[in-house]
């Protein structure tokens, strides 16, 4: 499931009053695993590109933050606090500050 799909998925809404269903645990695991995969891919792909123009590089990073970081922050804030796994480090590999740092390294060596 993509970040947008997760944010719009009413079945994964969780409150501390209700225990998380096993199916929801699996959905969250799959979702975080997919997000990790996407971030890894973005990181690897953007290491290949160098933009010498500082203004263009800044613009590209700013736009990347709008398109990638902002939805990720919402997703992370909504789901990262949920106890859905005994191995959180496996699924919650990136935090919003980590992703921002990754984006800030785009387009240069």
Automatic annotation (TrEMBL):
<feature type="domain" description="Exocyst complex subunit Exo70 C-terminal">
    <location>
        <begin position="15"/>
        <end position="105"/>
    </location>
</feature>
<dbReference type="Pfam" id="PF03081">
    <property type="entry name" value="Exo70_C"/>
</dbReference>
<protein>
    <recommendedName>
        <fullName>Exocyst complex subunit Exo70 C-terminal domain-containing protein</fullName>
    </recommendedName>
</protein>
<dbReference type="InterPro" id="IPR016159">
    <property type="entry name" value="Cullin_repeat-like_dom_sf"/>
</dbReference>
<feature type="region of interest" description="Disordered">
    <location>
        <begin position="1"/>
        <end position="23"/>
    </location>
</feature>
<keyword id="KW-0813">Transport</keyword>
<dbReference type="GO" id="GO:0006887">
    <property type="term" value="P:exocytosis"/>
</dbReference>
<dbReference type="GO" id="GO:0000145">
    <property type="term" value="C:exocyst"/>
</dbReference>
<comment type="similarity">
    <text>Belongs to the EXO70 family.</text>
</comment>
<dbReference type="GO" id="GO:0005546">
    <property type="term" value="F:phosphatidylinositol-4,5-bisphosphate binding"/>
</dbReference>
<dbReference type="InterPro" id="IPR046364">
    <property type="entry name" value="Exo70_C"/>
</dbReference>
<feature type="compositionally biased region" description="Basic and acidic residues">
    <location>
        <begin position="14"/>
        <end position="23"/>
    </location>
</feature>
């Amino acid at each position: 499931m993509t970040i947008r799909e997760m944010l719009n998925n009413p079945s994964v809404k969780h409150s501390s009053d209700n225990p998380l269903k096993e199916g929801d645990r699996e959905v969250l695991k799959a979702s975080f695993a997919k997000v990790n995969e996407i971030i890894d891919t973005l990181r690897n792909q953007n290491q290949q590109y160098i933009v010498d123009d500082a203004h263009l590089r800044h613009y590209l990073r700013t736009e990347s933050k709008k398109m990638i970081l902002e939805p990720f922050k919402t997703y992370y804030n909504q789901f990262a606090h949920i106890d859905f796994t005994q191995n959180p480090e496996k699924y919650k590999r990136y935090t919003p500050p980590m992703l921002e740092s990754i984006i800030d390294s785009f387009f240069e060596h």
